[in-house]
């Protein structure tokens, strides 16, 4: 690619007032205002890179401040100077000698790192004129390997093992690509089962979901056990017992309680139990899995590849739920997807929020094309909120994500939305709903 | 206690320019400017509570901003309203429904939580007219138990198990207190072995340390293996083979490399190997411990009680290095100290930085008086920097911390120091060394 220099970075604190409609409500997150720390990388070529990290409202300013600082490491640099030695670049962010104490590689600073690295990939893909999944899928094996930081994970996945996985995916590539182009990637819907929804609303949304072709439905649990079961049976009455229900407790329980509560929910025949306990509890998840006999899913709060490595090593999970933003963007997710493949665990990404669906469809397409080579037991989460703010929103057909065709990482938000929902000075927050 | 209301909170971003002297340099942290997000709780009684969380310079503003927000949960509240149901109060901070997404219970927001909760304990102890260790040691068992959040740890330590440990400590309490009052709590020095120090400086500092009565010396490693050994043998030449050396790699290595490097360092007869790999790697530490045969220590970057729980459950550590600030202050450390006791692992706190020595001496005294009941294999870290900024700095005699006698948590910094080193508007940063 021609020499392109990043000349300026802009950071925006964006907040959407979703808490007013109980959108996104669950056992732990009662009133989220879906938000994002958003950055735009301007270049001397005119092409921009956009990236964001998803947050829930208050505290987005902290991530935006961290992101503002981290952008100082890209302004003035060439794109190829970054992408030619991506690991070295990423370490300038994650090993920043004073900032690092605030993590390392977790929380506010890592969320900010994710936004910046994703913005660079968006720029990279636009410059190459390809949607991100295509850029990734067509990268030579050695280029992919050079973008992955094996530090702290090489006891679980060596570069040679990763190379073997990537090389083996050459076989059948064209057929898989044709399949994705025709049918898209399987998905599930979380839109019907939010915590704050009434029985009527759940029934209506289940029926609409079935009519639209959905076969996998997620239900938020973690409230009163009888009430959880009651809501679960409402969903079962609507969708029957052939379609799949996944239950999600959003970290509500301790380990012992999670075992009991998960067993209680077995009568719903859940396809997986998601986030039964604290997201840091690797050994706890392994024990819940062993003692409940229900498939266990987690990952949306798993803060880096070292934690995912251990979830896999300890046999904690049946389903690996990557998140596009919580870890340090595309590169760290490539590592996690490859580790999951090595351990034979399907990746079913976390999505929803703001832009997570737009992002993660690219990673799943790459997973299918270059890593797992199968769609068995794989579904991407889908939530039908806030897509109207994106220039190239996801396209869903019959419960599947259709392959994105526009160059980039699909994450650009319309300027009008950015101006309206910028916090606290956007027109929505300043004029329409002042504090 | 009489009704005291918190009327106002002030937050300060404090930065000391330690990087100019290679103070605190190690294999990973090259140029720390020891810093703190500092808060002062003002009350209608005139008594203040002071608390801080230790940081390394850049990014302290993020923690200060988070702390500023969290103080909104204490202003207007009574002290007893907080301390009578401390768990409920702590959860208003850690479960804040939008902020929580940025953790949970890790990174910037958890560091800020630590500063605030520590400030409350400082206030509590001042109001009671006792140094914190004495307040804690004299609290009834049930009061201690009510201050501990057992959520997410009750699979490892139940309230009944904690109660049994605390009740058993009644026996011999007076003798242990007399011992602490006469001799103090054993310590080790890190001041001689920083990464950036020359051979001459190491030799001189070792000799001075011996003359002062030190018997345990920490050496930073993680550089070139031959150089690590050379520096280690310099220390051994100075202190002999009866005194103890602890080596500290500050997370430099991957798991496999750590096993090899730790084995190589065995010729120094290290008493422990500290932070051989990534701090999140519970299973990795367990493997390094098994395969190197060297005692393993970690904890200063361990971000909450769920992670400490697993380090103990997995058999990852021989030495539990609590930190006063990284977890959510006193309460979470009480839980960790009790878990360590249950698993039979000695607590040897991390200290140094700004105020960590001042803080943690209180927790160790409580550990001895009410939990472990022994000093065997227990030492508190000591680093001889920045104590001059504290109203009641630690007092060291013959390699031991002397019991603090002043009411509170010993963390108040002189107003003149706060004004000089406030960032970026303090006189040091604004006038003496402008950016």
From TrEMBL, chains A, B:
<dbReference type="Pfam" id="PF13378">
    <property type="entry name" value="MR_MLE_C"/>
</dbReference>
<feature type="domain" description="Mandelate racemase/muconate lactonizing enzyme C-terminal">
    <location>
        <begin position="199"/>
        <end position="295"/>
    </location>
</feature>
<dbReference type="Pfam" id="PF02746">
    <property type="entry name" value="MR_MLE_N"/>
</dbReference>
<dbReference type="InterPro" id="IPR046945">
    <property type="entry name" value="RHMD-like"/>
</dbReference>
<protein>
    <recommendedName>
        <fullName>L-fuconate dehydratase</fullName>
        <ecNumber>4.2.1.68</ecNumber>
    </recommendedName>
</protein>
<keyword id="KW-0460">Magnesium</keyword>
<dbReference type="InterPro" id="IPR013341">
    <property type="entry name" value="Mandelate_racemase_N_dom"/>
</dbReference>
<dbReference type="InterPro" id="IPR034610">
    <property type="entry name" value="L-fuconate_dehydratase"/>
</dbReference>
<dbReference type="GO" id="GO:0009063">
    <property type="term" value="P:amino acid catabolic process"/>
</dbReference>
<dbReference type="InterPro" id="IPR013342">
    <property type="entry name" value="Mandelate_racemase_C"/>
</dbReference>
<dbReference type="InterPro" id="IPR018110">
    <property type="entry name" value="Mandel_Rmase/mucon_lact_enz_CS"/>
</dbReference>
<dbReference type="GO" id="GO:0016052">
    <property type="term" value="P:carbohydrate catabolic process"/>
</dbReference>
<keyword id="KW-0479">Metal-binding</keyword>
<dbReference type="InterPro" id="IPR036849">
    <property type="entry name" value="Enolase-like_C_sf"/>
</dbReference>
<dbReference type="InterPro" id="IPR029065">
    <property type="entry name" value="Enolase_C-like"/>
</dbReference>
<dbReference type="InterPro" id="IPR029017">
    <property type="entry name" value="Enolase-like_N"/>
</dbReference>
<dbReference type="GO" id="GO:0000287">
    <property type="term" value="F:magnesium ion binding"/>
</dbReference>
<keyword id="KW-0456">Lyase</keyword>
<dbReference type="GO" id="GO:0050023">
    <property type="term" value="F:L-fuconate dehydratase activity"/>
</dbReference>
């Amino acid at each position: 690619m021609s020499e392109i220099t990043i000349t300026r970075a802009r950071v925006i604190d964006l907040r959407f007032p979703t808490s007013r409609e109980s959108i996104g409500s669950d056992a732990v997150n009662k009133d989220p205002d879906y938000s994002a720390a958003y950055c735009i990388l301007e270049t001397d070529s005119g092409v921009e890179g956009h990236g964001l990290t998803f947050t829930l409202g208050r505290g987005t300013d902290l991530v935006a401040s961290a992101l503002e600082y981290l952008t100082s490491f890209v302004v003035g640099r060439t794109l190829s100077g970054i992408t030619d030695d991506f690991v070295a670049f990423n370490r300038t962010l994650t090993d920043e000698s004073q900032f690092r104490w605030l993590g390392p590689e977790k929380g506010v600073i890592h969320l900010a790192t994710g936004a910046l690295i994703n913005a660079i990939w968006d720029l990279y893909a636009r410059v190459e004129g390809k949607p991100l999944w295509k850029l990734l899928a067509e990268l030579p094996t050695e280029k992919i390997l050079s973008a992955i930081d094996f530090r702290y994970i090489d006891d679980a996945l060596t570069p040679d093992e990763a190379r073997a996985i990537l090389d083996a995916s050459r076989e059948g590539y064209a057929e898989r690509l044709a399949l994705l182009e025709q049918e898209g990637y399987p998905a599930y819907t979380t839109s019907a089962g939010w915590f704050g929804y009434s029985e009527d609303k759940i029934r209506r949304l289940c029926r609409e979901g079935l009519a639209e072709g959905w076969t996998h439905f997620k239900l938020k649990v973690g409230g009163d056990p009888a009430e959880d079961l009651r809501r679960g049976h409402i969903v079962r009455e609507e969708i029957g017992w052939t379609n799949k229900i996944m239950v999600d407790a959003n970290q509500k329980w301790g380990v012992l309680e999670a075992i009991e509560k998960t067993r209680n929910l077995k009568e719903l025949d859940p396809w997986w139990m998601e986030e039964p306990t604290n997201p840091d509890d690797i050994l706890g998840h392994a024990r819940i899995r062993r003692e409940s006999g229900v498939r266990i899913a987690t990952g949306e709060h798993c803060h880096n590849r070292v934690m995912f490595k251990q979830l896999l090593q300890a046999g904690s999970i049946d389903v690996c739920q990557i998140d596009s933003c919580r870890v340090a963007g595309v590169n760290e997710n490539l590592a996690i997807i490859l580790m999951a493949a090595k351990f034979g665990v399907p990746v079913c990404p976390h999505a929803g929020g703001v832009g997570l669906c737009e992002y993660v469809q690219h990673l799943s397409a790459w997973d299918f094309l270059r890593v797992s080579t199968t769609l068995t037991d794989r579904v991407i989460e889908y939530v039908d909120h806030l897509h109207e703010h994106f220039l190239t929103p996801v396209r869903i057909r019959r419960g599947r994500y259709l392959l994105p065709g526009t160059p980039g990482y699909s994450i650009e938000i319309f300027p009008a939305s950015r101006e309206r929902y910028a916090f606290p000075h956007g027109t929505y927050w300043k004029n329409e709903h002042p504090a």
